[in-house]
Amino acid sequence: MAKLARLKTPQLDFRFILSEFLLSKQADGISPRTLEDYRRHVNSFLRASPNISDYDSLYKAVIKYFSQPCSPGYRNIKLRYLRAFFNWCVEKGYIPANPTAGIKKAKEDIDNIRHVSLEEVKKLLQQPDKSTYTGLRDYCLMLVQIDTGVRPGELLQVRVSDLNLDSREIRIRPEVAKTRVGRTLAITPFTAQQIARFLRIRPEHWRDDVPLFASENGLTMDEKHWAKRIREYCKKAGIKVTPYGLRHTFAIEFLKAGGDPFSLQRILGYADLTMTRRYVRLSQDDIREVHEKASPVQKLQQMGKRAPRKLPGGVK
């Protein structure tokens, strides 16, 4: 009966409904980053659609919202968050149906995955001033991202207690992982050495809950600040890449070096293989080049082109 009463409500107050939805998601234990993404995307829709009074006006507002031009990738992100929100609204009886149900995902161009070459990565790593706390911190942050492909938001919340230099591992705790599933990342000896060097200049009096790569004041760096610092280094190096671009670079280089998609999925912390398949497709050109060099058929052709043992005309 309560559900039917809600459906008869003439005025839909989505500001109130959104607050209830976010509390529900918070109780489910989703990450703060995902919670903030829900808030941002639903509020963006509500700001663009101020005159929603009933389901009919809601449906028209949704159609108009998704008819606005934007990149396929961003359109699909908006659709994913709004579809989840409206599914919850249907479940709670606020609306009779999901207005996004008939909207299809846009076809994304895999070439829009922004990554950089290893030569450009080398230029980027040369920019931080490693004689300072912030410079060495930023250098180590870049190294770990390129070495592991970890999400920036996860890495910025890693604590010293999550680090094991003896086994060369970094633990991503479940409460900071985007998928809420913890995982352990391996790092190379060189990365471990640079982190050990950084720890020697890190203030010893900081509490245990201070992140490993904290600000100079011992506070957690947010992703926007880290992205801004990357932009500054990129400007000096003459390249373009974002913190997530470093994650993409790791993924593509991992596959080019012979890593398998299933291992990549676990390392990157994806819930399924959807994004991993995009990396595989993007690295197909490199895989073709490797195949041409390694194929047994190619080797057989080369064997057939060997110079004959006997020279023509009986010359010895």
From TrEMBL:
GO terms for biological process: DNA integration; DNA recombination. This is Site-specific recombinase XerD. It comes from Caldanaerovirga acetigignens. It comes from the Bacteria. InterPro entries: CB, DNA_brk_join_enz, Integrase-like_cat_sf, Integrase_catalytic, Integrase_recombinase_N, Tyrosine_recombinase_XerCD. Residues 12-90 form the Core-binding (CB) domain. Gene3D superfamilies: 1.10.150.130, Intergrase catalytic core. Belongs to the 'phage' integrase family. Coiled coil: none annotated. Keywords: DNA recombination, DNA-binding. Residues 111-292 form the Tyr recombinase domain. The keyword DNA-binding applies. SUPFAM superfamilies: DNA breaking-rejoining enzymes (SSF56349). PROSITE patterns: CB (PS51900), TYR_RECOMBINASE (PS51898). The keyword DNA-binding applies. Residues 293-316 are annotated as: Disordered. One of its GO terms (molecular function) is DNA binding.
